[in-house]
Design a protein that fits this description.
10 copies of one chain form a homodecamer. Chain A is α+β, with helices and mostly antiparallel strands. Chain A contains 2 helices and 4 strands; from the N terminus they run E-H-E-E-H-E. In chain A, strand 2 (40-46) and strand 3 form a beta hairpin. Chain A is elongated. Chains I and J meet through helix 1, strand 2, strand 3 and strand 4 of I and helix 1, strand 2, strand 3 and strand 4 of J.
């Protein structure tokens, strides 16, 4: 099941540099692990913004919540979640 | 070059049924042709809304505008355009 | 899988009375059929507004979209969809 | 009498971990006590957000205010309150 | 139980003058009847706007909905409903 | 002359408890004094929110500003001010 | 007593030209009459918009409402009303 | 050339009292100097808000920016700038 | 003096094709005439939207208003006007 | 390829003066270097605001993101990005 998620990140400017580096590294590992599993299907940077648009392919709501809630950067994120369905024009469905 | 585009559609309720059917058929052909060409990379329906989120892979701004402006449903659409860039966590870039 | 959906209805004031009555009757039948099937778990009227908040328990995004897209009043509705997950405080999960 | 309440939580990131753990435990006890009493009828997590949608079944405005104002997390919450009424399509009323 | 309700009115400009006059007369009668019953406690005009702020003192949500839904002008209104509770500073409670 | 004023309060969470208690006591005294004078005609708590809706009956803009600007909690408040006029349906005017 | 009022005008595009000309003439007369009386103290056009910002000097809320409600263009206007008070820096008060 | 400017002020609550007093005094001198020069034509307090609406009569954009950017309170202000033009109904133009 | 203006166009879908063609031709002539005069310095299409961002270099507010108010498409436009000033980093000023 | 970018800057008021001066100097050098390269085509100050509107002429999304993400002031900026295309009325295209 597919979801589009826009994540806007706002890390406190006064965060300790070391802590921030570790946080970002953990975020990257976390994301890449899920990408390898195929649950985090796509991730793109929104040009000029500390934000991304991602497509998730997950079992359902519970799993998506579990993934997003577990993001190391979650406390610093604003999320916009759009559940997706097949589009009648989508040729990949033919 | 990638763009995420959300298209919200609002077709006048009093549109002639025949005209509407032709319009939607034209829209579907137009979209599927671009999907086959690879420019319209993905299209998903936003659950419960007459809207879609699409990913375009185009040469640049001019081409994206040409595509969107040429949509049969364009006059009935509200667009939200997000230029995309590669995300540092994207494993497909490794 | 649970979704909260707020539906705001705006039927054209100049709609033919007979057509409107049939539309509303169809909407009621459609909803009650889904309620009996257990997919439309709850429906409440938002006080003072032509709107409702509903809880759906469905297989997934596709089914929710199918249900909402099929609402007789769909063309006259604005939807706000919130995918739900279990809350850690929910005693019904104990 | 029913109310739908969306609660968005924003706990200061620099809150002492111990204090936060106690606060959350108190919040859970407070909520579960009201759930057992039947006043807090339902609570769902909004997927991917530190927010919930709850349905309250209370005597009236005063009681709802008393409950919400008394939430341990109240100082860190933004509330959206929708008074609910019976929906004419609700089969549970038949 | 008290509710503050802001009603913004937008009557179609091309409405037949006679029909409009009857509609407004019916609205006035409807409101004044409820004022005499004490349910519609206060009604003020928002300066410079076709809107009012009203205070209702009703049995509960159901009754408020019944009243608002029954307003002759309801189809032309946008409502903003705020459930009210006693304020700790209110001297009328001493 | 009547004004409806919605006051949303946001007191810093890290304010010294003693200072906060004194501030709130001063706010209560200030409000109740004006209520006794009849200028602060009504005050209700917005259910579930640290906010109130108040009706002021004052000589004019200057006096209203003087009152609001003088509120001990003023620095922590967001105000929404609606000047009111008599409503043609208001039976209290007959 | 002073009020700042922003008026955004939206006249139906399909209004009969003659009727529109008469309406605008009536609006101009109405405004200029009040300007000569000193109640409509200032009126400026918002550059590039069918809108104006005006300053009214009136007896109070009732009079302002009477003036605005009586504007020939009132049915086609959206109003934003700001009650004004003396500013401590205003040298005209010295 | 005229501009309407709304300035909303938000001074940090924990600013040193002495520094704040000096800042406000500097702001007042700065404003009154410009008022005497005729560039700052009018300044009114928005009732119940730490905000003002001002009318500037300046040579052009550069000068307006220079004035606003130079305000001692500028770092604590949110500005809304409306360029003004003559209104066809303005009797002062006859 | 420079202004950035965003113009969003919304032409009624049921406008007569011939009238619309003439209107757009008039708009193009009007714009190109001003571009040749140097007052309309730049005009770009916002990708995927019936909107443009333009830079005007005009004598002042009155002239800008005169230009915008005179646009054949003005009745179908929503404008967002930003007065511009020189930026301290602008190398063209060295 | 052209992009319009509005950048709103909000530097913490308690930033060390020296650090701030260096930050702003770095920002100026960074911008002017790109202006000399022709990628940062135009930069204007929004009158009365700590914001600018800039036009970028870059190879594509990736390059624009690289530039914006690299701005020394980026952590203190809110960006609004509008991809631009040629406007059919633009005489510079003839």
């Amino acid at each position: 099941m597919l979801f589009a998620v826009r994540m806007d990140v706002s890390v406190p400017q006064d965060m300790d540099a070391q802590a921030k580096a570790e946080l970002l590294a953990a975020e990257k590992d976390y994301s890449q692990d899920l990408q390898r599993k195929g649950e985090w299907q796509s991730i793109w940077r929104c040009v000029g913004e500390y934000a991304n648009i991602s497509i998730f392919d997950v079992a359902g709501n519970e799993r998506l919540h579990e993934i997003l809630w577990g993001l190391p950067l979650f406390p610093y994120m604003t999320m916009d979640i759009t559940p997706l369905a097949e589009h009648p024009s989508d040729i990949s469905l033919d």
